[in-house]
Amino acid sequence: MNHTFLLEIGLEEMPAKIIDPSVEQLKNNVESFLNEANLSFESIKLFSTPRRLALMIEGLAEVQPDDVQMVKGPAKKIAQDAEGNWSKAAIGFTKGQGASTDDIVFKEVKGVEYIFVEKFTKGKKAVEVLPGITACITSMNFPVSMKWHTHSYRFIRPIHWIVAMLDQAVVPFEVFNVHSGSITQGHRFLGKEVQLTHASEYEHILEKQNVIADREKRKSTIVNQITDLCQEKGWKVPLDNKELLNEVTDLVEYPTVFFGSFNEDYLQVPEAALEVSMADHQRYFPVRKQDDTQVFLPYFIAVRNGSEDQIDTVIKGNEKVLAARLADAKFFYQEDQKISIEACVDKLKRVSFHEKLGSLYDKQERVSVIAQILANEFDLSKQEKDALNRASEIFKFDLVTNTVIEFTKLQGKIGAILAKEKGEKELVGDAISEQYLPSSATSELPSTKVGTVLSLADKLDTLIMFFAIGQVPTGSNDPFALRRQAMGIVRMIENSGRHFSLKNLMNQIEEALNINVELKAGVAQNQNLVLQFIKDRIDQQMQLSNESGGIPFDIRQAVLKADQDDIVFTFDAALTLNKNKDTADYKATIEALTRVLNLADKASEEILVSEELFEKDSEKNLYLAVKQTKNIFSHTIDANKRYQALKELSPTIDNFFEGNMVMANDEKIKNNRLAMLKSIKHLLITFADLSQLLIK
């Protein structure tokens, strides 16, 4: 017979962003507990609100299965004397297992005989096992936890009640001085305390107490109410902000959507500032017109944690709060319009970037130098170069504006708006707005060349300079988000399709930067660490970016260990190998090429290939084929064309090995053949270290 078990932890209101990962953590803990206890179940359903983390286990077994194990005891030579009598060790072992010497059997383990007895453990009932679930609660961890009263324990918020029911019966246990029971709490204002009579009625009973415990159901309720409201008003449905929708879902137990308005004068404030004021500070959804213009409208949509009772009062209160916030945004923005860009840039001299790396003004100057180097690699037009030079001189200026100090999320965006208002060119403003992109491993990339180069220069400066002062990320410790910066560098270069050596770029940067001797030395000493750090991000991106589910490990290793550091070519080579790995001739091609690698290391670097020492046509044919392949490599950076050239070379390599003994008795002949293999290896390693590949 299967059962239903309910566990609910009732708490003070939790931070919205903590709730979903916390209930998932609870589920994982409980799953592990049940599996270790060998207590089977069919499914686990999750529930969560700001005041509760809960789960319902359905199809829970009534009892553990009986367990029969063969338990190993002492070796036979210890368990019996010469006459075959049982020793004290054997008798004590059997008693300890609840058996007798009559139950002993012998088994050989690694050539030695041991005594064994069969141990039978009767399965416990679920109601006896479930109190151990307390460890699933007490072992939970959170980004921030707290103590309460005089207790020493910590949790995300104080626990006020616990429900633990197996069907109709309470499963008794205690967590943090709170005893489990069958009483849950409804909505803080619209519900009341209620006693459950069966675990399965949990969701239904709570709905009667104005709590929608199912998170997805609560989110759907919000989505439907907002959609209906917008359709009625002719507004664009503002649900593209998934982060806001999720946060609002976790802020309420019983959602009621409403809308309010604000003074049209505030529409003079940049839309970015309006959005941040509403979405980030007040958790409101901004409203736009449902047409091609999608212009901002003087309305907002909000979600109340409660019913429609006295909703007019709620609307007025929210309008008043938002008006104050928008008034601040308007005031700060108007004040910023009075200040020149040059004055803001001058203020950067007094704002520290890092105590060892100088001010934000110093960083801006370094970025300007790096940007000029990158401009040549990205083949910018004169107009784009001019825009890049100007943008790199001022791009951090908005960090000292009132608007960004108040609304930090607007950095870059406000800079772009103010720059354009003060007469800067469109390309300059766009680059300033794109300087922080991409902000994550999957977020959007800069859309302009100038923005891409500026963002790259900024991220390269951050990465190189922090490595120069020894701030290398270790483990999960990455206070300056250098992994994210490096991933952004990789993604932008890959997306650009621009081919260049990362090491050459680093050398140019090191030479061009006007920094003190100590920092200069740090940049030089840590260059290889920076390059490897970026390669690690390439490896990570290869696992994320391919539609087939990621580039296989062996191919990633092969291209990352190649003797080249062109990011775009590295990705192209990986994709080429991955595309060809299942073709009929892949195995033969790679085997022929890796056979070269196995012998090439025996060659001397000083000895060059001499045509006069060729004894057979197969040697000459290989020599000519290698020259042709080298010619192809020198004229194309296309990874697919290079692979095809190597594929065409492989039969000639096979013929060479079939017709010649490489390690010939004649030293000159042997060295000449090895030198030819060495020349092939030099070619191969610029494509990939093929010895890393796994051939099926």
Automatic annotation (TrEMBL):
Q: What is its main location?
A: cytoplasm
- Protein origin, superkingdom: Bacteria
Subcellular localization(s) per the UniProt record: Cytoplasm
GO MF term (any one): glycine-tRNA ligase activity
User: Where is the DALR anticodon binding domain positioned along the sequence?
Assistant: 591-684
- Pfam families reported in the protein's UniProt record: DALR_1, tRNA_synt_2f
Is Methyltransferase set as a keyword in this record? no
UniProt keyword terms in alphabetical order: Aminoacyl-tRNA synthetase, ATP-binding, Cytoplasm, Ligase, Nucleotide-binding, Protein biosynthesis
Protein family (similarity comment): Belongs to the class-II aminoacyl-tRNA synthetase family.
Full protein name:
Glycine--tRNA ligase beta subunit
Q: Which organism is it from?
A: Marinilactibacillus psychrotolerans
Q: Quick one: which gene encodes this?
A: glyS
